[in-house]
Amino acid sequence: MSKRLQVILSDQEMEEIQSVARQEHMTVSQWVRHALRAARRSRSAKDAARKIASIRAAARHEFPTGDIEQMLAEIEKGYLS
Asked: pTM surpassing 0.85?
């Protein structure tokens, strides 16, 4: 199902968009849909890139760790205290 979106633009903005759409051999509606899709893809890519950067930053850290059995025993001991 399709939905209509109304956007209020200044005369100058509308003229600029019409000009760009003409240069791309598109209607204004086609150009706007294309621009909105590109913006959504860009945002998704940025979110994923930020998450990956966070994971890589965390992976660069080195913290001391213990034997898993010892850590579990210490956790269990804490529950019983």
From this structure: no
